[in-house]
Amino acid sequence: MATEVVMPQMGYDMQEGKVLRWLKQEGEQVARSEIIAEIETDKAAIEMPAYAEGVLGKIYIQEGMTVPVGTVIAVITAPGEEIPDAPPADAPAATPSEVPAPALETAPAPPVVTPVAAAVPATGQIKASPVARRLADELGVSLSQITGTGPGGRITKTDVQGFSASTPAPATPAPAAEKTKEEAAAPPRLTIDQVPETIQLSPMRRAIARVTSASNRDVPHFYVMGEIEMDGVMELRSQVNRDLQEQEGLRLSVNDFIIKASARALAKFPNLNAFFEGDSLKMNKTINVGVAMDLKGQGLMIPALMDVGSMSLVEISKAVRHLAERARSGHLTQEEYTAGTFTVSNLGMFNVDNFVAIIFPPQAAVLATGSVKKRPVVRDDQIVVGQVMNCTLSIDHRISDGAEAAQFMGELKRLLESPALLLM
Questions:
Q1: What is the band of 330 on the pLDDT scale with cuts at 50, 70, 90?
Q2: Which 8-state DSSP code applies to residue 84?
Q3: What pLDDT was estimated at residue 192?
Q4: Residues forming the active site
Q5: Running DSSP on this structure, what letter comes out for residue 128?
Q6: Can you say whether the dihedral through the CA atoms of 18, 22, 28, 29 is positive or negative?
Q7: 150 lies in some domain
Q8: Does residue 199 lie in a domain region?
């Protein structure tokens, strides 16, 4: 029977999404888990897989249209099965969002670079990743001129960069063309006298405002703070990194140890890995640690490392770096974007001593950690110099209480002060 493809909820607060691209066209064969569309949320462009095998029988929501979560956007049928002409009668209506205007084709205009979206054939056969499309748009490059080297001839970010580098620059480039891509992507730094009276928030910043306001209002936070002596972690990290750097070109970070220790502690205190749902707790069977990441001025994202409890420190280190690359390039999976069960937020790299983080619903807790710094500590009744890290655990009081939170912090402290346990 026909399987409806609906706009997925890719995030706790997501209410609507936009169909960026259909990677499969009507009548094409679709395999289960094959990527069939790119969906844009407030924070990211996510690749949407097919949840059934068959033929993409009908597309109801075209590229560039924004619809509420749960709207039927297409249907997958068996070969030869009758195709419904229209989605269910109660399906919400789609609204246009940044659809290329037909006026570009009919109204005379001065010579300008045509937006990339307008250069895509009606058949939609140009396959490109979301970040490749955005980069091509920024550089004024037509995807139809680029040969893709990705799977199935898909155009990647590297393809666009390579094409742009091989294309002669205009004779009189504008000053903005000399900026790096990072400078172009980041908001301009203004002095106080240059700041306008009003700055329109980006979709990502609006989403952050909505989620944090709801969390601060609806979730009863309480906090447990502590100090952890990190001498053992710093010494072990230094020893391990010497071999890793030579053999794999990899270095463990302090945050890798924190993530590993958090996962081990969560295994003992599963309530802090649960979700509050009405009058019950949803107990999650895997520990998926969300890692708070700054997207270089664009905002904050918390993609998740899946099933951290089964990972070694080296595997965590590799996974975090890969996750960060894909978060910044718009290549997260739906699961990584939505399935976090606990969050670690580390501001140590910014020389922050201590801070308090807001819980990311529906999670039960978030761990905030600061810098590892040399401080006077008492050992065997003697004052010595030790390397200390401050941390604060924010907890949903509907799910847990002070005693359990304190025990979790005690276990975290035990593991990080005896880091050899994390290698076992």
A1: confident
A2: P
A3: 77
A4: 397
A5: B
A6: negative
A7: yes
A8: no
Tokens of 354: 């201590």
What residues have CB less than 8 Å from 159, skipping those under 6 apart? 132, 146, 147, 148, 149, 150
pLDDT at 69 over 70: yes
- Of residues 249 and 374, the one with the higher pLDDT is 374
Pick from 15-19, 147-151, 204-208, 296-300 the range whose average pLDDT is largest: 15-19
List the CATH number of the domain containing 403.
3.30.559.10
CA distances from 28 to 23, 123, 125, 395 (A): 10, 12, 12, 48
Q: Residue 352: is its pLDDT beyond 90?
A: yes
- DSSP letters for 223-271: EEEEEEE-HHHHHHHHHHHHHHHHHHS----HHHHHHHHHHHHHHH-GG
Where in the sequence is the domain holding 322, given as residue range(s)? Answer: 205-423
Residue 74 lies in a domain: yes
Pairing state of beta strands 365-379 and 342-346? parallel
Round the average pLDDT of the chain to a whole number and report it: 82
Q: Find the length of the chain.
A: 424
